[in-house]
Specification:
With about 600 residues, the chain is of the alpha/beta class. About 45% of the residues lie in helices and about 15% in strands. It is built from 22 helices and 16 strands. The protein has helices at about 35-50, 75-85, 100-115, 125-130, 135-145, 160-170, 195, 220-225, 235-245, 265-280, 300-305, 320-325, 335-345, 365-375, 395-405, 430-440, 445-455, 465-480, 505-540, 560-565, 565-570, 575-600; strands at about 10-15, 30, 60-65, 90-95, 115-120, 150, 175, 205, 210, 230, 250-255, 285-290, 310-315, 350-355, 380-385, 490. It has a six-stranded parallel β-sheet, sandwiched between helices. α14 packs parallel to α16, α17 crosses α19 (about 505-540) and α18 packs antiparallel against α19 (about 505-540).
């Protein structure tokens, strides 16, 4: 009789870390709003390694994903579980952004102390290694501690190498693939197990259909981490992703492409989703990101809506052309903003726009003035405000680093919600206060009602929906003190999870503070939720709501550029108008000449 082959198990622990709040506690929720694309992609790649038996036919790979935005990560329990089973393991801290690096390092410290192998990847490591001539001290310190740093993407079997090295006990201190980004066509399907997806509010998942961006925005890290050359999945890849998730009851997705409108396969993607909807009843709901020129692409908005797009995130960034030019955001034309937003509004999609404060030309007065212009003249729903931040991996960060300009050394603050540099025209206190006031200026009860009325004017739309989302944003900002995009359902806070180096509070003190904080938050939650509900119901029950109109909804006219504050009062607005008119005149001349040639030929 032949001997029985003994099977062993290798645990691949995938942890997407969160970051700390201002008191040093991880920001974790009972349910999180935004699913992690990196976690889904790495889980899919790990699952592919398991199926291909990359560690040999007698080694079972078990993958355990943790998203710390919705799951408490207990390093001690994870280590005990591995030790009890007698397995080998690799702890991977994945998708680590700059603001998450301190938390990721603190988790790594616990695992390394326990004798486990740890690898860390994500935008911070990749961005720093792609843009700086030296390894930054925090990354070097992590490597010295025993963390293996991974820079780049893990497709094309690159994860195989890391797993084999971990299995053999030969992990390298650095895996740098930044000069050789992989293709993603026919790559393993991004997905997560049902238990992990259940912790996302609304049972959403996420995936990408393309990586890289051709633009040159100086504040952006994507072009330096994912490259300037775009890489794409195929319609067959998309269908596989949708079907894999559909089997688990997941039909709502956030497509994380930085700009879906510049994905050369966008129409084929939408057509495939439309086919699944019409022929098999597989209907999906999508959130996509687009640029401000997408409305000029024939059929883009129409097919997006037909395919299931219900919300679009738009990189508006600013309404001042001078600021856009300074940030190399040349593709944004304020003369197109109204047409673009009205096109999405008329289609029935909800519009969410990113908006950056703190450009060198900004002042407190100009920022608050621009908030009023946006509220009055642009049919925009959610405005997501961010502080201009020199993120490691961006051209802005590289420039300031070379010049030796002060940047806050605490990476935890690099969340676009904290000031990390000095502003040339505003004091630190004025800049901080202006940022807070800009949020409060946009999210007033009056403007929430205006946005609800704009939606209510369209037959079939529920005006209570934008009122609900705007109220949620206001609650996160006012009650939780965090950026609304980091929000979730029911904040969880644990006494012993405090940031390394900060004191662990006595149990009585901690829970007393937590109780007081909870009461304060509940008052804000209750007051604002009641306010938002009343606004939504008032507009919804207005018998004349379909008759509502305002300046933002008025059809775009040629003389708008002579009348609207968007063009007359913003920095560079007049020059943008003159440039647009010059371009229109040039196109008209070309068209006239073409018509003359055609007439002569006849």
């Amino acid at each position: 009789m032949g001997g029985v082959v003994k099977r062993t198990t290798f645990q691949l622990i995938l942890i997407k870390p969160t970051h700390y709040d201002d008191d040093g506690y991880p920001i974790t929720w009972l349910r999180s709003h935004i699913p992690s694309n990196t976690l889904a992609a790495l889980y899919g790649l790990g699952d592919d390694c398991r199926r291909r038996q990359v560690l040999g036919p007698d080694v079972d790979i078990v993958i355990k994903p943790f998203d710390e935005t919705n799951t408490r990560v207990r390093a001690d329990r994870i280590m005990r579980d591995i030790e009890r089973s007698g397995d080998r393991a690799l702890i991977c801290l994945v998708g680590v952004q700059s603001n998450q690096f301190p938390r990721a390092t603190d988790l790594a410290r616990q695992f390394i102390k326990g004798g486990f192998s740890v690898a860390m990847g994500g935008f911070h490591a990749a961005g720093c290694l792609s843009m700086l001539p030296v390894i930054p001290p925090e990354i070097q310190a992590a490597m010295d501690m025993g963390v293996s740093i991974y820079a780049g993407e893990a497709e094309e079997s690159r994860l195989d190498e890391v797993l084999r090295d971990a299995w053999n006990g030969t992990l390298k201190s650095l895996y740098n693939y930044m000069d050789d980004l992989p293709g993603i066509e026919a790559a393993p399907t991004p997905h997560l197990p049902p238990a992990a997806l259940a912790r996302n509010e609304g049972r959403k998942s996420s995936f990408d259909l393309g990586r890289g961006c051709p633009f040159q925005c100086s504040f952006c890290t994507i072009i330096n981490v994912q490259g300037r050359k775009s890489r794409f999945r195929t319609p067959d890849d998309l269908e596989a992703i949708v079907r894999e998730n559909y089997k688990q009851g997941i039909t709502s997705f956030f497509i994380t492409d930085d700009n879906m409108a510049r994905n050369k396969h966008w129409e084929a993607f939408f057509d495939r989703l439309i086919e699944l909807r019409e022929n098999e009843g597989i209907c999906v709901s999508l959130i996509i990101q687009v640029d401000t020129q997408c409305h000029r692409i024939p059929n883009f908005i129409h097919k997006a809506r037909w395919a299931g797009v219900y919300r679009v995130f738009i990189g508006l960034e600013n309404v001042n052309p001078d600021n856009l030019l300074a940030a190399k955001k040349r593709q944004n034309k304020i003369t197109e903003y109204r047409k673009m937003l009205q096109a999405w509004h008329t289609s029935g999609a909800s519009t969410w726009a990113g908006y950056i404060l703190g450009f060198p030309g900004d002042t407190r007065e100009s920022i608050l003035r621009d908030m009023e212009i946006i509220k009055k003249e642009l049919p925009l729903d959610i405005l997501e405000l961010f502080m201009l931040t020199p993120l490691p991996g961006s051209e802005d960060h590289q420039t300031l680093w070379k010049q030796g300009v002060w940047m806050d050394p605490d990476l935890n603050k690099y969340d676009l919600h904290h000031r990390v540099v000095h502003h040339p025209k505003m004091s630190d206190a004025e800049y901080d206060q202006t940022y807070r006031d800009a949020w409060r200026t946009y999210y007033t009860p009056e403007h929430i009602e205006t946005v609800a009325k704009r939606h209510g004017s369209i037959p079939g739309r529920n005006p209570a929906e934008p009122a609900q989302f705007m109220t949620m944003f206001k609650i996160m900002f006012e009650a939780e003190g965090i950026h609304p995009l980091e929000g979730g359902v029911v904040r969880m806070k644990y006494r012993r999870d405090r940031r390394y180096g900060m004191p662990i509070e006595p149990i009585g003190v901690f829970h007393w503070k937590l109780a007081v904080e909870t009461v304060r938050k509940l008052k804000i939650y209750g007051r604002l939720a009641w306010q938002g509900w009343r606004i939504g119901q008032r507009v919804k029950n207005d018998p004349k709501r379909h008759e509502y109109t305002d300046l933002a909804l008025q059809p775009v006219m040629d003389d708008d550029m002579d009348k609207l504050s968007l063009f007359a009062e913003t920095a560079g607005g007049g020059a943008a108008v003159n440039k647009r008119r010059g371009e229109d005149l040039a196109r008209a001349k070309i068209a006239a000449q073409q018509n003359q040639r055609l007439a002569a030929a006849e």
